[in-house]
Design goal:
The chain is of the alpha/beta class. The protein has a 4-stranded mixed beta sheet. It has a two-stranded parallel sheet with strand order 1-2.
Length: about 180
C-alpha cells in the first residue's frame, strides 16, 4: 500500500498516544499526526485528500458546519467521507434500543466515572450524545452544507442505534483540466 495518512486532533494527549502506537507499529513514514482544529485546516490545499474519517469526535466540535465544510474543501471531487458517531437510540430499535438508551444515559456516566476516576468526562460524554442531532438530522446537515455538502450513500445503525456510520462523497464540480480552462 502506498497511502499516506494525516491525523489531526486538538488534544496533545491523544496525539502522544497515537504517536506512540504509530512508532510501535513502525508506520511513521506513512502516518503523521498534527495538532489542529477541524474548523481551521488551512495548512492543507483544497482538493488534496481522497478520503476523510472522524470517529466519535464531530459531536464535540462547535460550529460543526464549519468543520464539515473544511473537510469538504480538502476532499477531491467525489472524495469519501466516513464519520462514526454516537447517538441516542430511538424507539425504532425496539426494546433493545430503549435499553441501550437507558444504558447510555445512566449507566455509562456512573460506570465510566468510577472505573476511570474521571466522572466529569463521562457526564460530558452522555450530555454530548444527548445534544447531538438525530441520525436523520445529521444526515440532512451533511447533505445541505453551504459549501456543497455530501452525497450521503449510507447511514449504518449499530449497537441498537447508539452508534452510526455515515458514509458519503463530496459533492463538488471536478476541477477543469488545463485544456478546458484555456477555452
Amino acid at each position: 500500500p502506498t497511502a499516506t495518512i494525516v491525523g489531526i486532533d486538538p488534544s496533545n494527549n491523544m496525539l502522544n498516544v497515537g504517536r506512540d502506537k504509530i512508532a510501535m507499529q513502525e508506520l511513521s513514514h506513512r502516518i503523521t499526526l498534527h495538532h489542529g482544529d477541524a474548523r481551521q485546516l488551512s495548512n492543507w490545499e483544497s482538493n488534496s485528500f481522497d478520503g476523510a474519517t472522524m470517529a466519535f469526535g464531530i459531536r464535540n466540535v462547535p460550529e460543526r458546519d464549519i468543520a464539515l465544510c473544511e473537510i469538504h474543501r480538502l476532499l477531491k471531487p467525489n472524495g469519501r467521507l466516513a464519520i462514526l458517531e454516537f447517538s441516542e437510540p430511538d424507539d425504532s430499535h425496539g426494546i433493545l434500543g430503549r435499553l441501550a438508551r437507558l444504558f447510555i444515559r445512566y449507566l455509562v456516566p456512573i460506570m465510566g466515572g468510577v472505573l476511570s476516576g474521571a466522572p466529569r468526562e463521562y457526564a460530558h460524554l452522555q450530555n454530548s450524545i444527548q445534544d447531538f442531532p438525530t441520525p436523520s438530522e445529521f444526515r440532512q446537515l451533511l447533505q445541505t452544507l453551504p459549501c456543497g455538502g455530501f452525497d450521503m450513500e449510507d447511514v449504518i445503525h449499530m449497537n441498537f442505534g447508539s452508534v452510526q456510520l455515515y458514509s458519503g462523497r463530496a459533492m463538488k464540480a471536478s476541477p477543469l483540466s488545463s485544456s478546458e480552462s484555456n477555452e
